[in-house]
Structures
1.
Amino acid sequence: MTEETKAPAPAAERPSRPFGERSGGGDRPRFGGGGGGGRSGPGGPPREGGRKFFRRKKVCKFCTEKIADINYKDYRLLGQFVAESGKIVPRRLTGVCSPHQHRLASAIKQARNIALLPFAGRAS
Amino acid sequence: MNRIYELMFIVRPDMADDDLDKLVANLETTVTSAAGTVKSVDRMGKRRLAYAVRKFREGIYVLMTIEGAGTVIHELERRLRVTEQVIKFLTVRVDEELKRLDKIKKLRDAKKKVSAMPAAPAAVEEAPAAPPAAETPATA
């Protein structure tokens, strides 16, 4: 389980720009830190008041860069949204919008089928 | 009902160039004899595979764009399956996607024109407006 939650983090962090700096546990304070008091959120060290850490808003890479065509042949682009383990990185970590994530997922699956992307593990 | 398909296949890495030529020519005749047309053939070259396929770690990628009915693809895939040198293939129907991209492109172009339009008339209007403004101080 810990392996599963940690795995996407390095992959999501590598393509730095569009993603939040701390994508690994970025959404956790939303659920856990209701009181906002004692717990130090993983999004950053709590300052006075607790809840005041800054988190960059994640935006959809495909919307901002106006990439209309998400194609299975473009494995370099797709590779940014595949974790080290070969998994598709969830939307809540990458900030991709729902329609684009849908296309992205199908493109990644097609790319896997033609051996451009791995089903599991690093492309060797 | 003609549709546009993209056929990508991988042949074993130790295949000679002229053998590949022959294979591609063969496939092309298959397509044309089934009342389809080959729009383009793109050899993408040798590439390392993401995982081993039939114990090969690399393969030569070829991409063909084909227009025709589904029966063309059916026959083509049957042939690819039989062909020993082809280790993997994938056919994707792309006409819907192309249509969608066309629509987006048109929309963007239209938007560009709209944003360019107000700038142009404004410049035209300014030009005649400027001389009277310049004249008034001269006459006064």
2.
Amino acid sequence: MLFAGVLLRGVLSAETGGEDLLKQAGDCYKEGKFSEAGKIYEDLASDYPGSWQIAYNLGNVYFKLKQTGKAIAFYEKAKKLKPRKKEVRENLAYAKSLIEYKVEDKRNWYLAQWLKFVDWFSWNETLAAALLFYFAWMILSILNLVRRRGRKVLSLKKWILILFLFSVLPLATKYFKEKLYRDAVVISGTELRYGPSENDKVALSLSEGLKAQVRKVRGDWCLISFFNGESGWCEKKALEVI
Amino acid sequence: MIKRILIFSFCILFSLCPQMFAADEEVRVLPILDKRTVELGDQIQLSIRIVGTQSNLLRPRLPEIDGFDTFFQGRSNQFTFVNNRSESTTTFSYVLVPKQAGSFTLPPIEVEVDDRVFRTDPIALRVTGTQTSQNSGAPASPPSAVSPAGSSPAAASLPQRASSNSAGTTSPAVPAVSKNVSRATVPLNADQDIFMRVFADKQEAYVNEQILLTYSIFTRYSTRAEQFEKDPNLSGFWVEEIPIEKNYQPEKITLGGLQYLKADVRRLAVFPTTTGVLEMDPGVYRATIRKENRSSSIFDDFFDDSFFGGSIFARRETKLLGAEPVKIVVRPLPEQDKPADFSGMVGQFQMSASIDKRSVKQNEPVRMTLFIEGQGNMEMVARPGIPEMKDMKVYDTDSSNQFVKDRQGVRGRKIFEISFIPTDAGDLEIPPLEFNYFDPREGQYRVLKTQAYQIKVSPAPYSQLPDLSGGAQGDDLRKTLKLERKDIHFIEENFDPARGNGKTGIFIQGIFWVNVFLTAFSVFFLGRRLVDERLNRDVAFKRSLFARQALQKGLRGLKKLAHAKSPGEQRKFFDLAAKILNQYFADKFNLSAQGMTIDEIASRLTEKGFEPERLEKIKAFYLLCDEVRFTSGKVPEVRMGEFVKLTEAVTGFLEKR
């Protein structure tokens, strides 16, 4: 429960206001004033960090402004909040199809598949599922304590416990994954170096739109890695953390 | 079973149908060369293939290609149905004849299709071999099909050669001055015994009206025609080369009392493309004459060319021949009565048409053959427009040309084959096709029309198949909706900022706090249950644990009797006090309260180290209680305070242990 309480801090609290801004941003977008729409959405994004709609709209704005890297970053953010939303997934796939490079996934296939499965659900969904199963388990436990009999209740309780543990697994994966690294997207062409300074040799050049994992941050530099095993340091400003 | 097989077959047929009627095909323009390296004297076959359009195409204009003469060979159309997909292909064929060795580039060729311009990529060409033929003044002949001017009349004594870039080409003339104009020993037109004249068959013409130009050399020498040193400037004209007949013979004429041989060296049909007074520079023609002692008649010598038996020691002299410019007054076409969709054609034309069948099944083509024949710029004749028909699809299946170019100019006919494919059943009509032109002889516009053709179209078998609107058979035979181009989806406007993260957040928060409460409740319940189980397992411990509690409870009941005045109540006090104390000791020592004696209590307390003085007091209290309970004498005064002190001393001692 404490673990759930820690996660619960991420749950967005209800706020009011911003409707006019949202409408204004939508109007700007429709009129083709993408820069103006982008500014408004950026303001809204800081007020509503848990809104997939605003992240998605920002992705659209940056796509229209030909900033594919940033567009992908915001689509990824939107996908993280609303993983199975068709429009989000399709826009992300389309934007990714336009970037110059792709990264081959060389992780263990079972790990990759498990993380893909976990990414199919949002934080809120996994948390809600775990809490629900926990609730059911608690109810059955109390019933069991009070009545002290009933094999059916006991059997059901066992299954609910298994489901609860299974629901906790994705939650724990998400939690510890974020403890290990944060996903990020390269938003501008940059160079990957062997160390966190301009003096270090360039390992490879990165194009915008590539998804990376931030492993370490040192000043203005981040140690990032890719699923193909390549890693190196690049400037923080070239990344947008998802 | 048969019914099922039929339905299945029809379904497959229908699934292929959408491809049959794919209307928007991708247009491709493909330049095809039979070789890219060629020897001098050989030739390259160039085909420009235009695939995927049914539009009425005009011949692409070839750009000037360095090092090559170009000749148009003709066009062909092909219309195919392959795998139920229709495709129209038009091929324009050219021949490239190299003029000199070296590396050259075929520049991009522009093809206009449906108001769009397609450009081919540049292609590198290489010409190997020496330029012997050019140096000798006998370059490779253009292909016979289109090179009448290049095929020298071998029998004639005046071997002639057309301009190096003009034979057969139909590009608007561009003046091309030879880089090596040899200013020969004899100045231009200095010799009255040899000169050139250009004749036009008319001095005035309408725009796009055919004018015949003839370049003739008048000579009194034994002369050999070479070629144009400077090509005629024919800018403002569309030019068609007219070949010199193979059996052409120069004619003898008398001018100013002198006899000359007149030989036509070039004939052109030109079509003015602009209005006004157009002046044509006739260019400079190069001829060589033989200088030797003449025999009795110059006309005999005229045919006595060095190539054909003249003395090999004879000295030849080059003559550069110019002529007076030719002026043509070009009038615009009258605006009066001009058809809105005027074709631009000027001349005399006729049109006829026929169709191959008048009764067909749905989706079966009806082929129309359309003939347009006449005199004028036949190459420009395009297929008449076809009115849009909702129930018919139209494809240009083929077209062919039959042109005649002779002294009378350019004439001939164009044949268009058009396929009409009815998409609906019923009585359909192919509307009349109209071709309009301007007749310069009559000075008025004329419109030619084909007749309207009635076509009876019976339904195709598969059209009787299941109802496309979703009938009982359930086979949907409509075309598949396909994505034509991709883009991102629109922004999401369904976001209520007041709700923040919405129901999910509220639900998660709610269920979290419910779970906290349930957890606390279950922990309490579980603890209690564990204690119960522990106590139930160890009765002695349980009695010992609750002995003091029972004592306290008994003392609370005893307090009610503490101030008893009547002997009965006082007797009750001592009775109850003895029982409470007795019960307490029984619980503590896990013994039966009924079987307890004062001696057993004393021995147990002594074992535990209880003070003897206090033990005596307990014994005394027990004896007093027994005395009061079992005798009828005077009841002593109730001393509650003493009893409480006594129990506290006992419990204080026993509870510590």
